[in-house]
Design goal:
Helix content: 25-40%
CATH topology of one domain: Double Stranded RNA Binding Domain
Number of strands: 5
Strand order of the largest sheet: 3-4-5
Strand content: 15-25%
Shape: elongated
Radius of gyration: 30 Å
Distance between the termini: 116 Å
CATH class of one domain: Alpha Beta
Number of helices: 4
Structural class: alpha+beta
Length: 149
């Protein structure tokens, strides 16, 4: 009995998704291409169930569900499609590449902000600007007439 190696989609150094967790469907794509587009199912749609994927840890799952919320169905399924090329194989490669990039970005942790303080010069410039502005505004009072009459 011959064993097939499971094809994996590499996301980052700590995560690989088996390709059998992804489902692909083909349909007719729109756009330019004339009769070819009208006859051939070259658009490829990828479906990945983020909510139920056994490859993701609970932390990864929560991060993806939160960060990709606008791109997921109510059931937690990510849908991506590609119809850039006239070739179904090229579109499949493109949609898998975009899938990996999207997951990579979704799992990236934002850098922690290091609080900083304004420099002495910046503080002095700010206060100087406030004083100038205050002077401009105080000069806008009513004009007083002198004792001339």
């Amino acid at each position: 009995m011959e064993r097939y190696a499971r094809r994996m989609v590499s996301i980052n150094e700590s995560l690989e998704i088996p390709e059998d967790e992804l489902s692909f469907s083909a349909s007719r794509g729109g756009g330019p291409g004339g009769q070819h587009v009208n006859k051939v199912a070259s658009r490829v749609t990828l479906r990945f169930d983020v909510a139920k994927s056994p490859s993701l840890t609970e932390t990864q799952r929560q991060a993806l569900l939160q960060k990709l919320a606008s791109r997921l169905t109510r059931e937690g399924v990510l849908l991506l499609s590609s119809h850039e090329s006239r070739s179904q194989a090229s579109n499949r490669e493109e949609v898998v590449r975009r899938f990996a990039q999207l997951l990579r970005e979704g799992l990236r942790r934002p850098k922690k902000r290091r609080p900083t303080r304004p420099t002495r010069g910046a503080r002095e410039r700010r206060l100087g600007a406030k004083k100038r502005r205050s002077g401009v505004k105080s000069g806008r009072g009513k004009v007083r007439r002198g004792d001339d009459g």
